[in-house]
Write a structure and sequence with these properties.
By secondary structure, the protein is mainly α. The chain is built from six helices and no strands. Helix 1 (7-18) packs antiparallel against helix 2, helix 1 packs across helix 3 and helix 2 (23-30) packs across helix 3 (34-47). The termini are far apart.
Length: 139
């Protein structure tokens, strides 16, 4: 991510604009684009300064507190992420799949499917599988 231009450069550009120079001549003299000079002058007229806005930031997590506790209890049984999104929507919480995925990943939650058949164990009501018989005539 790039850094904003320095305040010194911004102040020099605005002082030249206020002195009556054209946008293009200021841009050429300071080696910046004319669009940047226009945006800075508009910002100066609107707010009285040309300080850069906030870059980046952090979006607070929605799934905290009571919702976190509910989700942790809910994930003790089988779940899917899309199912959790639907259940949260029923509770009035508007979240998307990615937010639920990030929550599950941060909490170390995963749902591992159980194998549909266990070939090495006995099935209920049936005898255990026997060994494979030898084929007659094999040398």
């Amino acid at each position: 991510m790039t850094r904003p231009y320095s305040m010194d450069l911004r102040d020099r550009a605005i002082s030249r604009i206020l002195a009556g120079e054209s946008v293009r001549s200021v841009a050429l003299a300071l080696s910046i684009s004319p669009a940047t000079v226009v945006r800075w002058s508009q910002r100066y007229r609107a707010w009285g300064n040309v300080a850069p806005g906030k870059v980046g930031g952090h979006k607070p997590r929605l799934l905290v507190g009571e919702l976190r506790n509910w989700l942790l209890d809910r994930t003790k049984s089988d779940f899917t992420l899309r199912g959790l999104v639907a259940e949260l929507a029923e509770r009035g919480v508007k979240v998307d799949y990615v937010q639920v995925w990030r929550f599950a990943h941060a909490e170390g939650l995963s749902f591992k499917k159980k194998r549909p058949s266990r070939r090495a164990t006995e099935a209920e009501g049936r005898p255990a599988a026997g060994a494979v018989e030898e084929i007659s005539g094999a040398a």
